[in-house]
Known about the structure:
Blueprint lengths: L1 H15 L9 H11 L7 H18 L9 H17 L4 H26 L12 H43 L5
Helix pairs in contact: 1-2, 1-3, 1-6, 2-3, 2-4, 2-6, 4-5, 5-6
Amino acid sequence: xxxxxxxxxxxxxxxxxxxxxxxxxxxxxxxxxxxxxxxxxxxxxxxxxxxxxxxxxxxxxxxxxxxxxxxxxxxxxxxxxxxxxxxxxxxxxxxxxxxxxxxxxxxxxxxxxxxxxxxxxxxxxxxxxxxxxxxxxxxxxxxxxxxxxxxxxxxxxxxxxxxxxxxxxxxxxxxxx
Length: 177
């Protein structure tokens, strides 16, 4: 569990550093938190990392400290973390499928929140119509690429670090005769 907390902290710090646009590890933190952290910590440790980094980023960018439409983003991360918790008891193909779905779940939920409460890139509210929702999702597509890179890249790094740590741990245990 300590490795999972260290990986969450590293990913949170990464979020505060300059990085490719929207290629942040947030979905990976949520999903892998659900997979790797103890059930007691699986949902709240990733959310605390997200909230603390949001405070810093919002202050840095001049946004309100608490921006309530982000509740949809937090809801998406809770859902992704719950999927990680559920995936613990599933077969490998199900774990992989859920991991691959993570950026798309976030995209669908967060852009729905933008459509419902946010503003378009032209600082106008989206029309509350199917056309407005479609326009919102279309405007969000450029952000999806970074989300895919960040989530999948960090998940690969987390899985690799966990496998390496597990391998080293089993190599250091003396064999009994």
